[in-house]
From TrEMBL:
Pfam families: ExbD (PF02472). Residues 1-13 have a biased composition (Acidic residues). Residues 1-25 are annotated as: Disordered. The keyword Ribosomal protein does not apply. Its main location: membrane. InterPro entries: ExbD. It is a single-pass membrane protein; Single-pass type II membrane protein. The keyword Transport applies. The chain crosses the membrane at residues 27-44. Keywords: Cell membrane, Membrane, Protein transport, Transmembrane, Transmembrane helix, Transport. This is Biopolymer transport protein ExbD/TolR. Belongs to the ExbD/TolR family. It comes from the Bacteria.
Amino acid sequence: MSTSFDDNDEEDLAPPRAKREEEEMDITPMIDITFLLLIFFVVASKMDPTQTGNIPDAENGLAISAKDSAVIFIEPIGKDKVVLKRRDQSEFSSDEEAQSSEIVEYITNELEKSISKNKDQVMLLGDGKVKVSQVTRIQKIIGDEFQDMEFTYIAVKEK
């Protein structure tokens, strides 16, 4: 007596599967993966130490003389674009590399031509619509070249 099993016989022995309702969906695994990815990116990311700096506390009524400062005007011209201007309203180059060297040259000339030699600060005058990243980029250029300069003052137009 030999018995042979067909594939059909094994299928008949398996209990029928319960049908899942299409409306219910378990999102627990998706939430777990989301938190794992978040933890991974927080742990694996590097903080850029060049982006940190000493930001002085804002003091109401602190008067900074524009005549004792090298002044750079920052004016927005588009969504993410700005125009940088000197004290005489002449524009810096729109190319960022050329702009960096022009900013350094301008500040050096402004600091050297001071009669009283008290001119040792830079003032950035901007509009409220100027992005922080643009101001930070200019501060980084100044900070990299003039390491003995303690503060860069930022002024924003009030309406």
